Structure formats: structure tokens, C-alpha cells
Amino acid sequence: MLVVSNISPIRNLHVMRPTEFLNSAIKDFTLNLNNDYRYLKAGYYVSMHAEVLGNPVIPSTENIIAASRTPILLLKASKAGIPTLAHLVTSSVKQIISEFDFPVVVFAVNPFQYDGFKIARNRSSLYRAFKSLSMNYKFAVCAQPLKGEMVSVKSIFGKCEDDEPVVRLSEKVYEVFKIPICKLHVQRVEGEVYLCGLQPLRLEEIFPSDLETVSTVISRMSSKGEHLVG
Amino acid sequence: MARIACFVEKYNFADQREAVALQNFQHAAEKMGHEFGFLFRKDISQIPKYDAVFIRATTDPLYTAYVVSKTAWELGLKVVDDPESIQICGNKIHLYDLFKRHNVPGIPTLFMNKEELHHKRLLEVFETLGKPIVVKAPYTSFSRYVEKVACETSFRDVARRYFRKSDVLAVQSFMPTAFDWRVGVLNRQVLYVCKYMMPKGRWKHGAKRRGKPTFVWGRTVALKTENAPAALKDVALKACEVIGHGLYGVDIKQVNGSYVVVEVNDNPSIYAGYEDSRNKDLYGKIIQYLVD
């Protein structure tokens, strides 16, 4: 198994830097570890290059794009049985108001904003959130009703530190999208949790304890040959 | 009878020739007994009501058009452009990497990432590709984000701008020609052929007027597909083979008697009186493909 990573050092693990891998033609199962898998960033290009070489790779470029585009994330997740709430992709504030009651959570669906979300509790805050996330009405946004509280958790190979329902959801999201390192935005509503969004982590958000988790998971994958079915 | 949604944005109707082409698609569909409706951004939730989606708005994995394509695909609808084609054609690094692996004849190309923007590497690049060279951002379309550079200073200037958005960019040999061939391919069959002429004194089909925000475009000269060189059509089909079965516009240069692929575009421009002038049946063929 070839591990390509921009996160280092990882205990007991030899990793290849993304730049080195992009200039190579190594044929092997590729595990792409990166804090940021966004489209056009090095993390994306590593998976793309692995696919062009014909290597099985985690994560796939298809999943990278799907996971970073909130409406596609929610559609694929709900098809796979992950709980999600109703959502609306639109470029009209009026449509959001007519479909959902306040408060609503709004995610950007544009090429430039990828982090976080905005909560609108009334009409004027929705207009403000919409103007900002649609980049002055140029792009669409993805709106979801806010029925409980929003929680953001760090997911490392689907493992996270939170209560049982969130942990189960995080594992399921990893099973479906296979994004090794990311942040999940979930909504907790009366004991149930719903997936709302996914975003990359900043390097400084990855702690030594997370690297321990990475090291343990990779050792297990190598010894059990789990990657063969990844 | 099938229900076809055509995803468009307002700018698709700004140019009269494109607006007429869209109407031609509508007439062709209706003549064949199908429903054809324009789908705008606010109507995305209506996608499940249709049988097929035809995307005419500019595609890129970061644009709404990709969300539409992927949503339709996940719902099991026939879609042109399909998400995989958008993913490959929308990123020239992906495209050229595939061309290299599958020996598609192309322009000599090197990839460069952010960490390689230093004097030693730039010297190597100029030594390998000569001067001037063409620097291309992966998301280039409509002749934008492609610039010619002849020295290290201008290379650094262009590269820094393109690196803001992408961590990797493509660098190619400069091959000036009077025109680029454009071969329209649908489902691995040639749909139309034309020549995209370069405007006088320019090296790209579309070039920005100095000091102005507007573009000057070269003429488009269409040919009957049966009159186009067979070797040209073969190269175009070979390039599309590594991508998929959809609708593509393959740009090809003729250099010293041989054909080299410049790039393959998903969502190729179709303007009334231009691409269709010698192949009027292209509208019907695309509609037929959508409903098959």
C-alpha cells in the first residue's frame, strides 16, 4: 500500500509527499491522506493521478467532489441510508421562505467558499446570509431547515469523539464517501442526528491524537489487507 | 414521448446565435414528439420530473451545472454532459494525464505544481519546451486562462495568478496555426467538423482586446463531416475514447501534416449558423441520443 500524505510525521509509517507522487508512475493501492481534498488542490490531484494510473485509491475523485458539493453529498448520503433533512438548491430567497420555516441553515454552492454555514433566524438575516453565500446573488445556495442544534465534529477514518449517534453517523459517512480526514456538520434533533455538510480540516486542527488514530487505522489496513476491498 | 430539461443560465440567451440554437433544439425535440423545457437554477428541484437533462450552461465541477448533472445522474436520468465527462474535460491536468497514459497524440505538455515554481525548474521547462511556451490553468475555457510567456518573469507572474485557484497547472509548447480544427463528437461518432480561425495577429480563437474587457473572436468555417480528413476524425475519436460516450468538442491542430489534440471540451459551443451550418441534423441527433 502506498501512502501519500501532506501530514507528517505519522508514527511507523513511510509516506510519500504529494509532489513526489504526482511526478511518479507508481502502480499500487494508494491511500491519499490530506487535510484538504478540495477540487483543484493537491489532495484532489493525488487521487486523480492515482486513478489515471489505474490504482485503486481512497478517496476517489468522484467521492471528493460529491462530498464537497453539499447538495450532492446530501443526495448520495440519503440514497445510502444516512439520515439527512430536506434541502433546497436555489438562487431565490423567496423560494427558501416559501419552502421552509425559520430558522434555516444555509451552505454555499459556489467555487470559492467551502467552510462553514450560516444560520438565518429571520427574513433579514436570511437575505444577509444569502447575499454572502451566493456571492452577491451570482451562485446558488443549499438551504436546510434548522430543527435542532448544529454540531461540527472532526472525523478521522470515520472515527470521532462525540456521543453514540454522531459516532455511528460519522462511520456511515466514511463507509459511503471514504474521506479519511474531514469535518462533518450534523444536526441533532431530539436524539436523532442528520448529516448537513462536510468540509476540509485546517492542518492546525489535526492534533497528535488524530495522527495516532491515523497510524493505528493504517497499520490495521495493511495487516488485514482491508484496502483490497476499499 | 420523453420530457427533456435543458439546463441554461441567463447568459445562454445573451448571444442571439446561441439563443437561436437553443430554439432549434426545442423545435427538433418537439418535432420528434418530445417535451423540451428550459430549466433554470431556481428549478433544480424539478429535475426528477424529467427523463433526460441536456446541459447548455457552462460546466465545471465547481459550478451549479455539475450539481445538476450529478443530481440527474444519481436519479438515473440520461444526462449530457454526464458528471464524469465534466470532471475530466473540466480539468486539463486530468485530460492531459489521461492522454499521456493512452498515447493520444497531443502537444508536448508538462505539469507544474506550486512547489516547483523556482529558477532551476523554470530553466528546465524552457529547455524542454523552448520559447515561448503556453501556460494553461486547468479550468481554462473559451480561450481564457491560457497565456503565452517567453521569459521567467512573465512565467512567474502568470503562474502565481493561476496557482491561486489550482495547485497544479499545465505548460505546453507553443504551436501557432492559422486555425484549430473543431470536431464535434457524440457517442463516439463525428457530429460536425469546423475550423476555428484565429483573429488576425492573434494565436487563440478568442483573444482579449488590449485595454478592453471584450473579446475578439475568429471566424468559424464549417465543413461537411464527409469532406473532413479521415485522419482528423480518427484522432478526434481516439481522444474521446478515453473520456466517455457523451457530446464533446475536440480541438485539434494540424502541424507538419499530422494532427495533435489541443483539448477535448465537454459542453461544446453550438451556435446557429456556425457549427450547424453544414450539419443541420446535429440538433435532431443530440435529441435522439438523449431519449434513446
Number of helices of chain A: 8
> Shape of chain A, please?
globular
CATH superfamily descriptor of the largest domain in chain B: ATP-grasp fold, B domain
* CATH top level label of the largest domain in chain B: Alpha Beta
Please tell me the overall pLDDT of chain B.
94
Poorly predicted sequence stretches spanning 5 or more consecutive residues of chain B: none
Write the layout of secondary structure elements.
The complex is a heterodimer of chains A (230) and B (292).
Chain A: E1 2-5, H1 18-22, E2 30-33, H2 42-53, E3 57-58, H3 61-68, H4 70-79, E4 88-90, H5 93-99, E5 104-109, E6 118-120, H6 123-133, E7 140-145, E8 149-156, H7 164-177, E9 181-189, E10 192-199, H8 208-224
Parallel strand pairs in A: 1-2, 2-3
Antiparallel strand pairs in A: 4-7, 5-6, 5-7, 8-9, 9-10
Chain B: E1 3-7, H1 16-31, E2 35-39, E3 52-55, H2 64-74, E4 78-80, H3 83-89, H4 92-101, E5 109-113, H5 119-129, E6 133-141, E7 144-149, H6 152-163, E8 168-173, E9 179-186, E10 189-197, E11 206-208, E12 215-217, E13 220-223, H7 230-241, E14 247-255, E15 258-266, H8 282-291
Parallel strand pairs in B: 1-2, 1-3, 3-4
Antiparallel strand pairs in B: 5-8, 6-7, 6-8, 9-10, 9-14, 10-13, 11-12, 14-15
Helix pairs in contact in B: 1-8
Could you please describe the fold and organization of this structure?
The complex is a heterodimer of chains A (230) and B (292). Chain A is an alpha+beta fold. Chain A folds into three domains: 88 residues, no CATH class; 69 residues, 2-Layer Sandwich (D-amino Acid Aminotransferase, Chain A, domain 1); 58 residues, Dna Ligase, domain 1. Chain A has eight helices and ten strands. In chain A, strands 4-7-5-6 form a four-stranded antiparallel β-sheet, covered by helices on one side. In chain A, strands 1-2-3 form a three-stranded parallel β-sheet, covered by helices on one side. In chain A, strands 8-9-10 form a three-stranded antiparallel β-sheet. The N and C termini of chain A lie close together (12 Å). With 292 residues, chain B is α+β, with helices and mostly antiparallel strands. Chain B has three domains: 79 residues, Response regulator (Rossmann fold, 3-Layer(aba) Sandwich); 66 residues, Dna Ligase, domain 1, CATH 3.30.1490.20; 90 residues, 2-Layer Sandwich (D-amino Acid Aminotransferase, Chain A, domain 1), CATH 3.30.470. Helix content of chain B is 30%, strand content 30%. Chain B contains eight helices and 15 strands. Chain B has a five-stranded antiparallel β-sheet with strand order 13-10-9-14-15. In chain B, strand 1, helix 1 and strand 2 form a beta-alpha-beta unit. The interface between A and B is medium-sized, with 34 and 34 residues.
